[in-house]
Amino acid sequence: MTTMTLNECLDYLNENDGYLLLTHIRPDGDTLGSAAALCHILRRLGKVAFLYPNPQITTNYDPYVAPYMAPPGYEPVTLVSVDLASENLFPEGFSGGPIGLCIDHHPTNSGYAQNLLCMPEKASCGEIVLELAKLALGGVDKTLADLLYMAVSTDCGCFVYANTKPDTHRAAAELMEAGADYKALNKKLFRTFSYSRLMLEGMIYTGMKRFGPDGCITVATVTLDMMAESEATEDDCEDLASLAGRVAGNKVSVTIRELEPKLCKVSLRSGEDFDSAAICALHGGGGHRMAAGCTIHSDPDETRDVIVWDILEAM
Question: Of 98, 93, 46, 102, whose CA–CA distance to 77 is shortest?
């Protein structure tokens, strides 16, 4: 694995062609917006480029990424992953092939790609792709501005998460000045929810539990039964991991989502004084110090007991 600078990454992108860009499982706004923006950049450079048709893309994001989806039968030459920290995050249905380049901002990146551009100081992958756009094209057009604003804003919770930095605001300001429709994007992505989503949130709050000294560990659980009762879909599950951290006195929040019987997705959020990524690494996951995730092959109650024990041991 070769680590790259921004300029070396751009050289690689100019030297290759026939791109297929990968987004991660249960894709969020950062992986989708960054990958679509990179696809747009490559096309403006005269390259053939498409996104892998990730089957888990939700309706919130589909209109923005649909123009970039690979057609049936497309045979790529160069595989690039965007915002994928490890192989276990490959999108559903992807059967492999050597990854020529990974563009990422996770400090826990496993180094699976042949080449890596990783900038962990960035709050989002969108900020990295923004720098590539300025290098490659000399600026940002309206399409790129929308895609990258979606990427940057979603990975920092519309600029309220602890990973938000001065450079995050500067990137957002650049994108707003370049024509990003930030009013519509903010309303769509952060202020509009379905009835089912609000019903599901009510169940989550009702079932929250607290553990540890002074109840500093908050655990929220989303079961398959709760999803069915609220009639919620994947479209309603964006950013559920932020809810448990709203409890006053919380130091570490855990969100456990039952994906199928005996399989749970775990999301940890914490302050700077606790390493969430280290806890998730115990179970084959990773992420950032203050935001990380993993999957555990167990039911929600057993998963909760294991994770709470790990957190208490680390405190």
Answer: 98
